């Protein structure tokens, strides 16, 4: 097995060790993500099962919504400001194009953005569609708390955006906004034309993290096993080569001895 100390095999062994170590870390990371996903699922399930509370119990003007409150249900009373409805573009369902309609609900404490639902459109969101009007007068809304989106997708132009953010919307609204927003559950009185309701998250799905973790560990084990097999194959071939050399050497010695015996005669 002295060949393992050669420069080529030492470099090969170091490469395999690095690959196995990296695959092990990636597998651990996937299982860590699985634990996080399970914790998120437990939080979502608990929040969805919680009874509704007043809006001001969880949200406040100018304060971001808290992650631990996402998917808690709140009740709010106010009037819709249809003139400042925001269109969230490029929202597909079942492969069809559409938009989400977000309308501010003005309350005694300010205004809260409410995603009233999804509207099927004949385009991908390049132009603003005609929106169904929100009910007039005072309404009572039940909705799930959502955390603001982030990044450039939240920028608002002509009351259109690609992701909802109360901080971005506050720049174009004539009144202060609560942090975060709501996904509409029910409203009373009901609108003349209801939009497609919010799709609730699946709190039972754990994603692909478990299988990805096993996959990375399998790759690491495969690298080690492959190295062992190649080392064994190299050792086996070297033994066969030495055995062949000994047989050949023995045959040569026998031939020489035979020639000496024939000369003696």
Could you please describe the fold and organization of this structure?
With about 260 residues, this protein is α/β, with parallel strands linked by helices. The protein is about 40% helix and about 20% strand. It folds into two domains: about 1-40 and about 210-265; about 50-190, OB fold (Dihydrolipoamide Acetyltransferase, E2P). The longest helix is centred in the C-terminal third of the chain and has 56 residues, at about 210-265. The mean pLDDT is about 90. Strands 2-4-5-8-6 form a five-stranded mixed β-barrel. The chain has helices at about 5-50, 55-60, 165-170, 210-265; strands at about 55, 75-80, 85-90, 100-105, 110-120, 140-145, 160, 175-190. The chain is built from four helices and eight strands. Helix 1 runs antiparallel to helix 4.
């Amino acid at each position: 097995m002295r060949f393992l100390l050669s420069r080529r095999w030492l470099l090969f062994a170091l490469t395999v060790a690095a690959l196995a170590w990296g695959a092990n870390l990636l597998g651990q990371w996937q299982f860590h993500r699985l634990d996080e996903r399970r914790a998120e699922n437990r939080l979502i399930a608990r929040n969805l099962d919680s009874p509704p509370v007043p809006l001001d119990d969880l949200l406040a003007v100018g304060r971001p919504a808290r992650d631990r409150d996402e998917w808690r249900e709140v009740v709010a009373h106010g009037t819709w400001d249809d003139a400042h409805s925001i269109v969230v573009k490029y929202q597909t369902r079942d492969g069809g194009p559409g938009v989400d309609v977000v309308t501010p609900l003005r309350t005694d404490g300010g205004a809260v953005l409410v995603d009233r639902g999804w509207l099927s459109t004949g385009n991908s969101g390049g132009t603003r569609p005609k929106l169904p009007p929100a009910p007039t007068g005072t309404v009572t809304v039940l909705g799930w708390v959502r955390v603001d989106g982030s990044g450039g997708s939240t920028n608002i132009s002509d009351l259109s955006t690609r992701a909802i953010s109360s901080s971005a919307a506050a720049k174009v609204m004539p009144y202060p906004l609560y942090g975060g927003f709501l996904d509409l559950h029910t409203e009373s009185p009901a609108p003349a034309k209801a939009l497609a309701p919010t799709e609730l998250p699946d709190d039972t799905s754990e994603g692909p993290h478990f299988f990805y973790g096993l996959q990375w560990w399998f790759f690491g084990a495969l690298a080690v096993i492959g190295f062992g097999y190649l080392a064994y194959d190299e050792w086996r071939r070297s033994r066969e080569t030495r055995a062949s050399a000994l047989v050949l050497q023995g045959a040569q010695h026998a031939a020489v001895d035979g020639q000496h015996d024939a000369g003696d005669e």
